[in-house]
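User: two proteins, same treatment. go.

Assistant:
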Amino acid sequence: MNKLLFLICALFVSGLRQQFCTANGETTVGRHACATTKLSDGAHGSRHLIVKIGSDDDHITPAGAADLAVGLTDDMPSAAEQPINVHFLGGSVGTKRFISVGALADNLDIYQAAGGKVQGEPTVAGTYWKIGRTKGAAVQSDDTFYYVEAITQEPTKVIVLAALTAPATTAAVDLATSEALANACKADLVAIAGALATGAHIKILAA
């Protein structure tokens, strides 16, 4: 009976750990359920920022749009070398709170933006990371920040290419008679091949 009670208690505690995962008491090396603890490289201007590896593996700093993120922190360090929690993207139970660069609709894919914030689908060529989907519209709580609740996912690299230079109606006969069109098609293929070589998802902007 005592063994059965002990097993039930152990399973209950394990479930609570998954449900309310925090970084307290965890080190940066080892196995982590859904969060870890890192040190800040400097002060943060707000909570709920996406972070990346900083000066070394034990330090973090706010991530940009093209940076592979470590996770999201709810802490706001006021200086360097302060311990902060980091929730893994796609590894935490429930939704997380982010700061967006502007208004966002419900049920919308979100991507990393500058300064540890998020944005909607990118409309400018570049490298981005898709990290989740909104579960409610972004709400501006003051004159500074838009807050949005989202379900996170493991970061997915997305390369956004500029609009193709060759017209969509280009035919084989056109390529045979126009060097400019042939060069335009070649440039488009080189750009697409370069993006595919990275293993990323690709989006091509409309002309």
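Protein 2:
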Amino acid sequence: MKRAFLLGMLFSSACLSPYIFSATENASMRVSVNVLAACSIVANEMQFGNYNPAEADAIRNTTTINATCTSGTSAIIKMDDGSTEGEGSSLSAPIRRMIGSEGEYLEYAIYSDNGYSAVWGGTAETGVAMTGTGSVINLTAYGNVPALQSVSAGSYSDSIQIEINF
């Protein structure tokens, strides 16, 4: 009798199991995100090395500015005229100077092109435009210290603020 009962239960389960979950309902779940336009910037130091004021040749060097923006984001990278700008300096025509320990100034310029003709300034016209890719974009800054400046020996430095507008 137990055996017949168990066989009956087994048979009933096997026959009825496809019908226990025979109905199905579907739903959809919306998934979304809002991607923001964002940028970041890192500026490396520009070191000119040794300067001999008696030499007839300017000294030049380059550095890299690393900018990262959301893909498709338009941006402009601008530089101010430094912390010791010269008389008549402006964001569109910066007159940059490094200051020495004796309070003397050593003029220099930073350009956005390797022909040293486009001064990198602090306006939309003198800044450097870029479009983000989502990856780092390396921009080169070209520095020049003009020759034959009458200055005392010592260390000279300046600090430039760099900003990215997007």
